[in-house]
Amino acid sequence: MFAEKLRLDGRVAVVTGGGRGIGLSCAEALCEHGASVVIADLDAGIAEQGRDELRAKGHAVDIRQVDVTRSAEVDALAEAVLARHGRVDVLVANAGIARSGTAAEDVTDEHWTAVNDVNYNGVFWCDRAFARPMLKARRGAIVNIGSMSGLICNRPQKQTYYNASKAAVHQLTRSLAAEWADRGVRVNAVAPTYVETPLTRFATEEGGLLDAWLRDTPMGRLGQPDEVASVVHFLASDAASLMTGSVVVVDGGFTCW
Ligand code: NDP
Question: Could you tell me the superkingdom of the organism this chain comes from (predicted)?
């Protein structure tokens, strides 16, 4: 019974920013448990690479190009997925960008807007577009990718705009969960620590920042994309049927201090 609840056979899942990094790993975890997955990414080439990698492992994967900052494109994506697959059961709103190293007083309007457009507005456009068919079907699971940076201030990294955008995702998650709970749609978030992906390559290559991260992490290491993806899969599955509005921290103990 317990293993059965983790299965996603016959379900359709969409992962934004799913061509690489954490998103690609989420796509793989959902596929492995039986879902048909649509990878939606900004760069069609990256989406193709992700699709080819998963298809080579025998998984059912489709791709779509989308810019999550454009709500009309996101609405069109939801319509295209419905037209092609006839249903949508899971959304992983993962697309995000990170910028750091600028003191708050020096952050430009463009900088602030760019980060919030993807990390916060983009998540809402996606949640809204995919919740519509889910609410109609009275069934669906949304997992937003937040960050432990939405819970702590991360002062040495000077990334107020990123921290604030992720805190907003957490509160968005709780608010949507409360609105949609009685109509069968669950909304949860995952808040990861530093994970080894292209997004954090700048720190692992430069060394200094990585040393600080490792020192501040009780487990003493970075996360791997699959360690986030396994939690996302759990939240997307019926095994998490009583969970909605949760922000699940996956951080090797970083925020325990
Ligand atoms: P990556 O940069 O490796 O992957 C992000 C993907 O999102 C890329 O394929 C990127 O495409 C895509 N993307 C960016 N902007 C858009 C857009 N406007 N529309 C559609 N797709 C877009 O990042 P990670 O895998 O590391 O991060 C995934 C999520 O996890 C993000 O939300 C991030 O904030 C969060 N996170 C990551 C952590 C980490 O340490 N890695 C820690 C905590 C949270 P392109 O390359 O073309 O820009």
Answer: Bacteria
Q: Are 217 and 223 in contact (CB under 8 A)?
A: no
> Which three-class secondary structure state does DSSP give residue 184?
coil
What proportion of the chain, given as a percentage, has pLDDT over 70?
99
What residue spans define the domains of the chain?
Answer: 1-250
Residue 186: what pLDDT? 99
Ligand 1 pocket list (CB less than 6 A): 16-17, 19-23, 41-43, 46, 66-69, 94-98, 118, 122, 145, 147, 192, 194-195, 197-200
**Each residue's pLDDT tens digit, 39-51:** 999 999 999 999 9
Structure confidence by residue, pLDDT tens digits, 135-148 = 999 999 999 999 99
pLDDT at 55 over 90: yes
- Tokens standing for residue 240: 């998490």
Contact 100, 161 (CB under 8 A): no
Q: Please tell me the distance from the alpha carbon of residue 257 to that of residue 250, in angstroms, as a whole number.
A: 14
Q: 3-state class of 29 per DSSP?
A: helix
H or E, element range at 80: helix 71-85
Q: What is the mean pLDDT of the chain?
A: 95
Fold of 1-250: Rossmann fold (3.40.50)
The backbone torsions φ and ψ at residue 179, rounded to the nearest 5 degrees and listed phi first, read -70, -35
What span, in angstroms and rounded, lies between the C-alpha atoms of 18 and 40?
Answer: 6
Q: Which helix (H) or strand (E) holds 90?
A: strand 90-93
Query: For strand 12-16 and strand 90-93, is the pairing parallel, antiparallel, or unpaired?
Result: parallel
Q: Which of 199, 217, 227 maximizes ligand 1 atoms within 8 Å of its Cβ, making it the mutation to test the pocket?
A: 199
pLDDT score at 206:
65
